[in-house]
Design brief:
Pfam families: Abhydrolase_3. InterPro entries: AB_hydrolase_3, AB_hydrolase_fold, GDXG_lipolytic_enzyme. One of its GO terms (molecular function) is hydrolase activity. This is Esterase. 37% of the residues lie in helices and 15% in strands. By secondary structure, it is an alpha/beta fold. The chain has one domain: Rossmann fold. Helix 3 packs across helix 8 and helix 4 crosses helix 10.
Length: 304
C-alpha cells in the first residue's frame, strides 16, 4: 500500500490541475477534443510496475496498441489459471490511460494471478462508441476461442464500453463470469433528474461538458442505443455485476438505476457505494480508495 492522502485534498488537486475542465463547461469539452489533434499523450505503462511483466502485442489487433500484464512469478510457481482479465480504462472518452490505471491493473494481475489485457482504444475525435465496442468484443472473442474465461472491468467511460461489450456478447450467447464497473457512465443522455441533486457536491464531472463528449462519442448512433448508453439495454442474461460508485459523483444516480434494473432482471449485483466519495474513488490514494481497489481485485479473482 502506498502513501494515502486526506480525502479533502482530492477536490483541491482536481481543480488546481484542471482535471475537471473538459466536463464542467461545453467549451472545455470542445477544447479538449481539439487538443487531441495537437498534443498527443503517452499511453505506455510506467517504466516500473511492481510484481508484473508488461508486453505490447505485435501486431496490434484492430490496429490498436494492446498490452498484456502478467504477474512476474518465480520459477516453479503454479501456472496461470485459464482465466484472463480485460481492463478498459476511463477518461471521459477523451483522456488517455493514466498511471493510476496501470497501478490498479498491475495489482489485479499480481493478486489474482491472471494475465490482464489492456486495450488502448481510439479516443475522441478519432473513435466512436460502436467502433470501440466492436474492438473490445473482438479482443474478448479471441480469448474465448483460446478456451479462456474472461473477466471484464472498466472505469468511468471504460465502464460504459465494458457494459456495452458485455451486452453484445450476451446477445451472441456468451455470458461473462464477471463484469466489474467502477463509476460507470451508463446513460449518455444525461437526463436523470437526480444529477442536479448531486452536481453541487461533485468537483470533477458535469453535465455541460458531458453532453458534448457524449454527442461526439455516439457517432452515427442514437444516444439511447445500448452501444452508447448501456442503461437502455435489456440486462437479462448478463453474468454477475460488481458496481462501485461514490455519492459525490454525478454518475451515481444512474448507477442506482443499473443496480435496480439488473436485480429486477435476475442479474446478481455486488454493490459498493462510497458515502461522500468522488468519481472513480477506487483509483485515488485514499483510505476509501484502498478499500475500493480491494473490492475490485476480489471481484475479478477466479473461482477455485
Amino acid at each position: 500500500m502506498g502513501i494515502l492522502l486526506p480525502e479533502s485534498l482530492i477536490p483541491v488537486y482536481l481543480k488546481a490541475t484542471g482535471a475537471n475542465r473538459p466536463f464542467v463547461t461545453e467549451d472545455g469539452a470542445r477544447r479538449r477534443i481539439a487538443e487531441r489533434f495537437l498534443r498527443p499523450v503517452s499511453y505506455g505503462p510506467p517504466s516500473r510496475l511492481e510484481g508484473v511483466r508488461v508486453k505490447r502485442r505485435l501486431p496490434d489487433p484492430n490496429g490498436w496498441p494492446v498490452y498484456d500484464v502478467e504477474p512476474s512469478a518465480p520459477a516453479g510457481h503454479r501456472a496461470l489459471p485459464k482465466s484472463v482479465g480485460v481492463y478498459v480504462h476511463g477518461g471521459g472518452w477523451v483522456n488517455e490511460i493514466a498511471p493510476q490505471h496501470w497501478t490498479l491493473i498491475a495489482r489485479i494481475a499480481r493478486e489474482t494471478n491472471q494475465r490482464v489485457i489492456v486495450p488502448i482504444y481510439p479516443l475522441l475525435p478519432f473513435g466512436t462508441a460502436r467502433e470501440v465496442c466492436d474492438g473490445v468484443v473482438e479482443l474478448i472473442r479471441v480469448e474465448l476461442d483460446s478456451d479462456h474465461q474472461v473477466r471484464l472491468a472498466g472505469d468511468s467511460s471504460g465502464g460504459q464500453i465494458s457494459l456495452s461489450a458485455a451486452l453484445r456478447l450476451r446477445d451472441e450467447g456468451v455470458t461473462l463470469p464477471t463484469t466489474t464497473l467502477l463509476a460507470p457512465a451508463l446513460d449518455l443522455t444525461w437526463e436523470n433528474p437526480q444529477i442536479d441533486v448531486v452536481q453541487p457536491s461533485d468537483p470533477w464531472l458535469g453535465r455541460p461538458g458531458g453532453r458534448i463528449l457524449a454527442e461526439h462519442w455516439s457517432g452515427d448512433d442514437e444516444l439511447v442505443d445500448p452501444v452508447v448508453s448501456p442503461l437502455y439495454g435489456d440486462l437479462g442474461g448478463l453474468g454477475p455485476l460488481t458496481i462501485l460508485t461514490g455519492t459525490r459523483d454525478v454518475l451515481n444516480p444512474d448507477a442506482h438505476v443499473l443496480k435496480d434494473n439488473a436485480r429486477a432482471a435476475g442479474v446478481p449485483v455486488e454493490w459498493h457505494e462510497g458515502e461522500g466519495q468522488l468519481h472513480v474513488y477506487a483509483l485515488l490514494p485514499t483510505k476509501a480508495g484502498e478499500q475500493g481497489a480491494k473490492a475490485i481485485v476480489e471481484s475479478l479473482r477466479p473461482s477455485t
